Amino acid sequence: MIEVAGASARTEATRGTPSSVVRGATFRWERGLLVLLGAPADGTTALLGALGGDLALRGGTVRIDGVPVDLARARIALVPLAPVLPHGATVAELWMLARSLRGGVGDASSALSALDVERLANRPASSLSVVEQRTVLLAFALASPGVETLLVEEPLASLDAAALLHVEAALRARADDGVVIATTSSVRDAARLADEVLVVAGGITAAAPPGWLHTARSGARVSVAMPAGDERSEAFGRALAADGEAVLGVEREAGDEVLVVQGHDLVPVARAIARAAHAAGLAVRAVEPDVVPLAQVQAAALDAGARSR
Amino acid sequence: MNALVVRSTLRGLVRSPRALVPLAGWTLALVAIAVLFRARLDAPADRLLRGVFGFAVLPFVLFAVVRAQLGPGGLRAFVRGFVLLGERPTRAASSAIAAVVATTSATGAVLAVVSAALAHGSSDAPLLADVAGSFVAGALGGAAYGAFFALGSVFARGAFAGTFVGLDFVLGVGRHVPAALVPRGHVTALLGGPACAGLPLRASSLVLIVLTVAYAALAVRLTRRG
Question: A302 touching B, CB under 8 A?
Fold first, then answer.
């Protein structure tokens, strides 16, 4: 469990990268996958760095299972966007070090196999690209049973191409047993990963139900891919259009292969789609809810937070 | 002490041959000047040691060594890689500094012995005593410079990496009290130069040891703060 009370931190600004600042963040996360939604400049990088002990706190506290981060160092794994692995060691040696501190079995190849990157096992750390370094760090963290809190910056970006196929399932599996906190500036990635979302905007944090990510002020939009020219597709469209309670409008796109359904709220729209597909006997190819732009999610979360105070 | 951190720090020297160019250049210059001293000028060896060696070669060579070992990001960036793997920052930083100090101390001692032996003339003290004195001065000075530049790497990176070399040059000359806070004055005194801040030679040796420990402790503390 991670408890954050009034935590403030900031990263140093470097050439071309503004500093990331977070002020007074307060939340508690016991188990599952929490997504911090916001750009690095909004404070996500600073908050994650403070949670992982990579950045000194300028105020507040962070406790992991009741103890300060410094005393729980081996139980936390942080995978930042720009890690620098020690340059005088090989990946295999680094795994031996990580294994001695956080536990684990087998050699580096078996540790890296969770993300399908065993080929990196015998490389010197200095020969790895930033993307490969991130992948190695994440694979080591996933292979270490001693890691109870996994913190990952942008988990669906800047990873080895092979690893990207496995990372979502690996994070979900880890979230079943412990704490996983990920940052992203992609609303779509947040919607895909999160059990809960904490919006970070301008250094301020505010809770947001995941449903918000799909529901703009004008309502929710869901795209449904289906076979074109099929009788059942036509019946599906008619059934949706007739559902005046949940559905506000239905449009066809991409040569009748995609139906865009609009409604007040995502959940009633999703239920209407399921009802209509069942009634028409249609097996839809894909269902994809639209996501709201990041700025709108941030504004709504901060607005709701201010009102609740 | 973390053995992998120590090994990685030591390997820094062979990992980045380009970073060793200044080391090779200054060492060759030192040898050439020592040979010249002996062949033509017949000046006493301590003049070479406190002049060329103590003034320029030792700090520049050791700065190159520390930079090669810790990399361009300095101590904090070097240690961060180990911390991301679960190591405690203090343990990683103290291991890295121990390796740096051992390397710079050995480098300083070897260079001092070589230059003393090459420049030794008929008017100097007996060779063995000269070499032994130079060995101690080089080793103590090397250790202090190693810890000093490791501390400097926490503050000054990139274009400002050489700030602590400049600080040593500015503060270390003269006989005033601030000269006692950087290695230069003490090293020069031990190599036959004027006393640093009026301290006797034995006190300068002791101060170099104290400075090494103080710089190292401060560097470890600053690295821990993140």
Answer: no
DSSP 8-state assignment for residue A74: G
Please, which residues have CB within 8 angstroms of residue B33's CB and are 6 or more apart in sequence?
B48, B52
Each residue of A10-65: pLDDT tens digit? 988 777 777 888 999 999 999 999 999 999 999 999 999 999 988 889 999 999 99
Percent of chain B with pLDDT over 70: 84
Q: What are phi and psi of B156, to 5 degrees?
A: -110, 115
Q: Which residue has the tokens 């789609």?
A: A273
- State pTM to two decimals: 0.81
| Chain B contact for A140 (CB, 8 A cutoff) | yes
Interface of B with A (CB under 8 A): 2, 4-5, 7-12, 15, 71, 73, 77-78, 80-88, 225-226
Is the minimum CB–CB distance between A88 and chain B shorter than 8 Å? yes
Length of chain B: 226
Residue in A closest to B70 by C-alpha: A87
Tell me if A54 and B85 make a contact (CB, 8 A cut-off): no
pLDDT digits (tens, 9 = 90+) for A268-290: 899 999 999 999 999 999 998 88
Both structure tokens of B152: 């400097």
HEC sequence for A101-152? HHCCCCCHHHHHHHHCCHHHCCCEHHHCCHHHHHHHHHHHHHHCCCCCEEEE
